[in-house]
UniProtKB/TrEMBL annotation:
Record bears the keyword DNA-binding: no
Gene3D superfamilies (alphabetical): Immunoglobulins
Signal peptide: 1-22
UniProt superkingdom: Eukaryota
TM spans (from-to): 972-996
GO CC, alphabetical: plasma membrane
The protein's name in its UniProt record: Nephrin
Primary gene name: NPHS1
Organism (species): Bos indicus x Bos taurus
Family from the record: Belongs to the immunoglobulin superfamily.
Membrane topology: Single-pass type I membrane protein
PROSITE patterns: FN3, IG_LIKE
Amino acid sequence: MALSTHFKAALLLLGLLMTGLTQVPILASAPRGFWALPENLTVVEGAVAELRCGVRAPGSVVQWAKDGLLLGPDPRIPSFPRYRLEGDPAKGEFHLHIEACDLSDDAEYECQVGRSETGPELVSPRVILSILVPPKVLQLTPEAGSTVTWVAGQEYTVSCVSGDAKPAPDITFLLSGQTISGISANVNEGSQQKLFTTEATARVTPQSSDNGQLLVCEGSSPALDTPIKASFTMNVLFPPGPPVIEWPGLDEGQVRAGQSLELLCTARGGNPLATLQWLKNGQPVSTAWGTEHAQAVARSLLVMIVRPEDHGARLSCEAYNSVSSGIQERGVTLQVTFPPNAITILGSASQSENKNVTLSCITKSSRPRVLLRWWLGWRQLQPSEETVMDDSRTVTEPRPPQEPRRVQLGSVEKSGSIFSRELVLITGPSDNQAKFTCKAGQLSASTQLVVQFPPTNVTILANASTLRPGDALNLTCVSVSSNPPVNLSWDKEGERLEGVAAQPRRAPFKGSAAARSVLLRLSSRDHGHRVTCSAHSTELRETVSAFYRLNVLYPPEFLGEQVLVVTAVEQGEALLPVSVSANPAPEAFNWTFRGYRLSPAGGPRHRILSGGALQLWNVTRADDGLYQLHCQNSEGTAEALVRLDVQYAPTIRALQDPTEVNVGDSVDIVCTVDANPILPEMFNWERLGEEGEDQNLDDMEKMSKGSTGRLRIHHAKLTQAGAYQCIVDNGVAPPARGLVRLVVRFAPHVEHPAPLTKVAAAGDSTSSATLHCRARGVPNIVFTWTKNGVPLDLQDPRYTEHTYHQGGVHSSLLTIANVSAAQDYALFTCIATNPLGSDHTNIQLVSISRPDPPSGLKAVSMTPYSVGLEWKPGFDGGLPQRFQIRYEALETPGFLYMDVLPPQATTFTLTGLQPSTRYRVWLLASNALGDSGLADKVSQISITTPGLDQPSREPDYQLPTEQPAGPSEMPLLPVLLAVGGLLLLSNASCVGGFLWQRRLKRLAEGISEKTETGSEEDRVRNEYEESQWTGDRDTRSSTVSTTDVEPYYHSMRDFSPQLPPTMEEVSYPLGLRALEEENMAFPGHLYDEVERVYAPSRAWGPLYDEVQMDSCDFRWPGDRYEDARGIYDQVAGDLDPVEPDAIPFELRGHLV
């Protein structure tokens, strides 16, 4: 009781503390309490909710609380526009009315009565207002409203996801009106609190009966009166039924030839409906068909005209659609009855007299078979007859009595499906146009014999005798009977004339007569010509001819051989000849030049010869032009123009230098000149180069047109690159000359050493290795690397790549830092690529090992007491190697050994030998792991030293070796005097050192001379000097323009990544000089000298310093070739102008 009292006191105190509360007068005498309590309520979103609250509390404040939040006693509840208090406060009605409920109204509510004088505060039990949110949409996959194509019998997955709802809706699937079982559903949280979504998945296997039906997803919820639905239409594909052929008539397959056969093929069912086609013997004959979707049937009508060759043919109808597992087929075999479809007579029906004529009657088989019969006119020939007279024909021409016709009739023969019967006849003159007929049933074929005889006499008739130019002359040629008809033709001095055929006449022996006329419009050129008529029989190859000679009177006319252009050279002579024709002959000749008449009596520089020719001397360019000649006779006059052409020497005006071409392509080197005359043969071409080089142009095509000459190079080869000279000689000295360079671009060619390139390095992750790759190509080459076939990632800090370019020689150096045996002992592939192609080579990175045996051991010089040796070092195994010589005298037992110094040398002079002695010499290579052994035969030779009376033998070339560190011009005598004491202690060593120094000097001088020559020549040969340097520290790759002569394999003991690649930066002077189509290697001695990746300092300096070739300099060396413009100017200058003082005073000036 005490607790109740305290609770009521608290409520009363709360009521008193609230300010602005609505004071509701309640009768003081009424007891305090609730007469109507709120209850739990559930409404749908958007509906109206009302929570009831009825109190008996006079003088108390009543308000509602939502989730503990007091809404206030104001009936309008300003903070919640959709909330208000309903009812009569005087009656204690305080109902909470909520309009358009939404999810925010879903909460707990209580009605509270404030404490008053009449009693404590009152609080109703908490009630829950539940807001139901219906799902707004169903998301169906496949898309709702669409038509989904499925194949019958296959399983498909359908998913349906509801929109936000409260509570989570239930989803069901209906297939063709039937509920699908086995649905998996998941309830997930919605986009807002208290909202949920349902995702349901079903597996569906459609059948053909489901085609066109709906698959429906239904979502139901207490917030919905009716479920919401989403659906799509199923287009179920299934194969059609078998085809059916409707045969017209009772006997299936029985038809007649010529019959129009109509066959209907039907196939029912299927989605899509069946595709039908007709085949005959497996070959399609009709692919037309129609469909009726209402009846679900496909029909194809085959209409064909039956032919005899269709006998035994099989007609089949095939039905299928896009989901058919195979083609369904129905067929029928045709049985065709047919008569003979054609009859043919073979054999020549045209023949000369007394010749055998064989006629063969041929027809194909029929069902049933028919017989073959021969007829002559109206009479059938029997096999028993040997002589048959033809009394039906009447012969009107006077011919001797004819022999009876002899006929031999053969029997019927069969060959396959062909039947034949022969008729053999010996012809006579009366057999001309006899008719023979062969019959087979209702069919027949006829042929008519033709007996040939040659044409007879030919006569020409003319309508005039005196002729002048312009007259019309009509000539008629008449030929008598012939068989076959003859062809009449007219010609005049070999020129064919078109005639007009006359009316045909009746000729004897049923032959042909012919007449043909020709109308000639005469001209002076027809004088003396013969007009010939020829009657020719093509079959008999006989011709009969007659001719008529023309006599035409005409004024002077210049002949076709009249020279219209006369050629002369400046300061030379010229003769303008006259060739004129006239009937009668001409009487006078007059010449004019530029409107002025030349004196017939002659002048200082001309005279008119007998016959009308004009002679000129001391010709100048002013005399060039047209000269007019006038001559006459009794019939009239004539004029002619003769051109005098003054010639001069050629001058080159255009020459494209350089000319570039891809290897294997074709290119023209074009040379354009200014010359008179322009001659087709005035262009000539030469190829420039050193002695011994192939300079013939047999594989090139020389062409010229007008003032332009071309040297066409087909399928350009690398050996064709170089300098060419265009020589133009038109017969007027001096000839013109011009130089042009041909640059041949070619695909990369990587040098492939043998054996496989090897590089050795310790695999302890502390050593480095450098792989060299060199290729040749124009234009520049791009290098890529792979390791064991996988592209190398140059972003890896352990890899650094440098690329060098010099002309057509390109190199790539791949440096591998911290070599690991597990990762880096592999096969590296270098791939060289340019726009014309690519090539590659393999380099094996291996562990350090014993060295390989050296190769190429040979004697290069010999004296009675010494021999000079040269060799090529083998793979050093990755360690410093040295060489040792073992030798023996064959007559003395035991071996002698001598170490090669310096250790890296590839030449050595073995001393201490005896004259006229046979020796056997071995060369061994060794490093810290052992030696190469003596098993290799290429590292041993046998020699015989010369006697004292024989001269020492020296090689034809200088030994390649290293340059001494000091100047090559240092005198050797002071050096020898300075070290005299050393020479006395070691005589053999001094002699060897002296010879060594002399060879070094000779090598430097010899290679320098060759380098200078090669450098100049290389500038004139393949001029592709596109040098460049590119670098990127991030990618650790670079490109340098240079050439080098590194070996095929290298040791890594001297490698230092900080040092510049000395061997790669040295300009290689030979360029493409040694590049050949088949053998692309450099000279051997250059490779022998380069043993390490980076040679010692100044090892090659003086040798290459003597020839510095600028990689960007495209100019021709001035000491070898002249500037093109200078050449042209010199040629043009060679033609000195004619000085007036060089001609006598009386001969100067113009002709007129």
